[in-house]
Fold these 2 entries.
Entry 1:
Amino acid sequence: MNKLKKIKDFNSAADHYDSDAIMQSMIAEELIDRLHYIKINPKRILDIGSATGRNAVLLAKIFPAAEIYELDFSIDMLRVSMNKSSGFRKLFSSKKRYFINADMDLLPFHDNTFDLIVSSNSIQWSENINALFKNINNLLTIDGLFLFSSFLKNTLIELQYFKEHALTQNFLTIQEYAEILNNNNFYDPVLIRDEYQNEYDGALSALRDLKKIGVTKSDESHKSLRGKNYLLKLIDHLDQFKRNDKNILSYEVIMAHAWKIRNKEESVIRFTKS
Ligand SMILES: C[S@@+](CC[C@H](N)C(=O)[O-])C[C@H]1O[C@@H](n2cnc3c(N)ncnc32)[C@H](O)[C@@H]1O
């Protein structure tokens, strides 16, 4: 994966991210909402792939006394978050909020730093999810919680069938996530699988939608495939998945949480199918 190109893509998406990433917003809200039902009172929270700070606002409402660290490798996403209106600033006035421009694959913190680590719709961009989960486990305090959402194997299945369009994100299965959590000393995991389908009036608007939120083909080695012929083939391919004359993009989503140490209650892995 060409990381510099990814950073550039997310930088270009930053100014319109809040209005474009509607589905991501719904997923993130549902994810953060789960904290209302989990017994935890974190002093320090890290949001990995924080983008424009939407999670930080939700987290600050639930945990008004906590310090919140927003981490993103896109400086423009962080800039948008920092410049949010005075209403948002007021929400954070009595507490500390930090902006960290860094790569999630090189997390710049000491062990045992955070009581809660959150990441919505971002860890699929990691180059090594196993190493990332190991680092996250190290960064958590003893009673710490990791809460995340990401996309699963069948996400953008309509594009995956298009052989030339190699999307290089890590879309794993829910079983693989369960294994990675288990291998990295996370306990009492709860994993939920959900499906979303977005409908579009044409293949081009589906592709534009992906570009707007920073999802583009990141492999520069296939430049010859770009251009009009490539685009026509891609549109033709997407049209094969049309339903009721609408183009479709599918998303398979995981929402999960797990603890750094085992709770006293019985440890069970629960899979829920919607
Ligand atoms: C799809 S957005 C999700 C943003 C937000 N959490 C949400 O749910 O709406 C993914 C974010 O992760 C960031 N990101 C992607 N790869 C990253 C990396 N390796 N290190 C840090 N941030 C990264 C992008 O810049 C982008 O802001």
Entry 2:
Amino acid sequence: MSDEARQDNCTSGLTTTARVHGIFSRIAPGYDSFNALASMGIDRRWRRTLVRMADLGPDSRVLDLAAGTGDLALALAVQGVPAEVVATDFCEEMLEVARRKAESFEGPTELTFRLEDAQALSLPDSSFDVVTVAFGVRNFPDREANFREVLRVLKPGGRYLVLEFSRPPVPPVRWLYHAYLRLVIPLIGALVAGDRASFVYLNDSIRTFPAQAQLAAELRRSGFSHCSWRDLTFGIVAVHVAVK
Ligand SMILES: C[S@@+](CC[C@H](N)C(=O)[O-])C[C@H]1O[C@@H](n2cnc3c(N)ncnc32)[C@H](O)[C@@H]1O
């Protein structure tokens, strides 16, 4: 996708969408190593919990947004065993890593990868039972556009599951966590990806993202119903579930 097309697709925060794309293109080769170090492997447990919450059946069609290097898409295919997982991202460099990882995937699920901007999907209306996103929503400058698009592509009664960094409700946990974000994350980013600035952005995007109740209210205002969330690891992350 060209920069012009990307900008046409996003009516607000034009620079930010292009900037986010630039950041993930640059850090794609080091992204998995960074994740493993920064979260000490807990991220895999968070994704597995989301898959359980998705409660997929053998006929389910799943769309994974901002799929990045494919960890959630693979977890959905291996653990959830739905009929189909369509893994999408707007960054070819991240998808390249995902495709390589999926080469060894064997199973009944049809797993495909495609370039898509989560704020302007080219997929048909009412075509998915479940839409998922892990650590992607906070990077969308126009969340409303994303919520509109998800409502459009979900079948009636379909669910949107959002795994994202959140706000630990207990103050001392929050202070410790924010200190970790500020001091340790850019350091690991510099060591693993040689790119301290991009990880300062990631850290800022986490600290400024809406807290659990605010995100649930945004989803509700956008037209979802039954919006709820489950805190994981003291509320460092949360999984929101919203129904079309
Ligand atoms: C932090 S990574 C998360 C990747 C993966 N879901 C995971 O759990 O590790 C965020 C991803 O969001 C993607 N992304 C950011 N903005 C996007 C957009 N507007 N449309 C599609 N993907 C986007 C980035 O390219 C990147 O791959």
